[in-house]
Give the backbone structure.
Amino acid sequence: MLGSACGSVDSSSKAEAKSTKLSCPSNWRPGWQKLANRIDAPVYCPAWIPDPLTAQIGGRWSTGVSVGKDRSYLAGFIWFEKGSEIHVNLRGYPGRTTIPKCRNDEQAGGKRIKTFIPCFADAKKPRTVAGYRVTLYTVNRDADQWHLLYAWRRNGSLYTLSEHVAPPFGYQRVVQNLGHMMRSLVLVQPQ
């Protein structure tokens, strides 16, 4: 069975988790620091991510980082083999707290109509995870399609963390993984 990556925190004890000083693993930190510097805004490095993934930007499991003109970013990590996939995305929208819009092409009257709809939908009741007020979205688009996604706001910016619901992990396990990753987040400030 898949285990945990380095930098994990035992979520069974809140007191233990609070007393443990989390840090972005030393071999992951340079990529996250470079991203924070590039967008001139804080980013979140997960100190834990589902095994065998690592959150090393540019590492073996990294799908790269894309940065928009508005400084929004997407950092993705994926592992797959026949019948199984683990795919995690982290996003940030500096200076913006609204849900982004995604293109949605529809057919109507024999014509293709381009519309834009929220990229994250089917919001569940907000809850607090590791001090963050998060909303779980279960219907998502773009790179987060078929993912469960946590969204939260911090200092006028929107951040998201998502994981694909696919073997070897079902819905409940992905929710657990998201919670574990939220509890392991380390804020990396631009320098």
